[in-house]
Amino acid sequence: MSKKKKLSRQQPAKGHHPHRSGPQTPHAKRPMRKPVSRTPAWVAPVSVVGGLAVIVVAFLAIRYMTTPTVPPASRATTAQVISTITSLQASELEQVGEGSATKVLKKTSDQLLTGSDGKPLVFYFGAEYCPYCAAERWPLIIALSRFGTFTGLSTTTSSSTDVYPNTPTFTFHGATYTSSYITFQAVESTDRNGNALQNPSSAQQALVTKYDKADTIPFLDLGNKVVLLTPSYMPDLLAGKTWSDIATALTNPQSSESQAILGSANQLTAAICLLTSNQPSSVCTATIQAIETKL
Amino acid sequence: MSIYLTFVHFSAAQLVCSASGTIDCERVLGSGYGVIAGTAVPTSAAGLAWFLIAGALALLRNRRAQVAWSVAGLLTVVYLVFVEIVQLGAICIWCTVAHAMVVVIFLLTVTVRDGDA
User: Fold this and answer.
1) ipTM (interface predicted TM)
2) Cα B98 from chain centroid?
3) Separation of alpha carbons A234 and A231, rounded Å
4) B24:A240 CB<8 A
5) A62 neighbourhood in chain B, CB within 8 Å
6) By mean pLDDT, which of A16-30, A60-74, A119-133, A196-210 is the weakest?
7) Can the peptide bond before residue A26 be classed as cis, meaning omega within 30 degrees of 0?
8) Global pTM?
């Protein structure tokens, strides 16, 4: 019995790895199959899946580092886009109502703030790098254009390295606004790369300090009667779209862009109507006044 | 997936998919990469053809052709994922499911031997 056991140890089964330090027998001197170490079955699929995962991560890194900017809008395109969004049909705005815009406007019980000309003052504080400011400028321009006229607006995008990179938008830096009803002041504190652009005046800084205690942008003060501290919709709605894409979408009241941007514009319009005692009546319609009561 | 996407392409039916943010089938399928370059043939139709040929090769038990075909499929998937992530910055979820199936077919082809069952 013990001899049999010994033999079985000395003659490994065919294909088994021989004991390197085992006793040498005549059988062991015969040519043997080269030892084969079979790779476990899971190695190949795991390697392939792992390799693919590395490739995907590399693609994400490339995307992150070279996020393509939205192709810059030409002067003609910019003019066309601004013309489109500042001359939207009143019936379309009425149809959208509050749309899908989040109710972010907050009423205050303070005295009406007016500019040096005695008209109610609307003050915007933001920055070109800020994606939330980028989103909020669309409805703000649409709303303000119902009470006056912008000149010198130009297109830009938010920072390429912040969240919601390269959100297409406009800048108030270098733009002027005239209106018979309100005064509009805007401060863009930095450009899209974070370089300083404008500083608020002491009076403007006082408004920021008073109402924007969390120091967030965009900040919008509508005559000290209504303030906006958070965006009314998320910038990802505009991701990857050109200004023209968005302007075109805004002519369709059913589009998700219209629902968010025009809905927000109507809320801002209602807030401005609150300051102007519902003037002009062609803008401060029953629909807008209904929104006004819900602010 | 490929049948569905090809059907949507030719019927102009509404695609069941998110249309904003990173998951945006419309942006991917509506881009220039949604069709085979220089043709009106949707990329999904090419995917459908790939799956049919892969199935035929499996029935014929032509292992070399199967491996070559699955490698070609995998490389195409890598290219399409590159297009989605780097070029378009958007993911088509239906396309991703089809891509995953190509990867599974590739793995089965290279790991399952004829004698295995």
Assistant:
1) 0.80
2) 5
3) 7
4) yes
5) 85-86
6) A16-30
7) no
8) 0.59
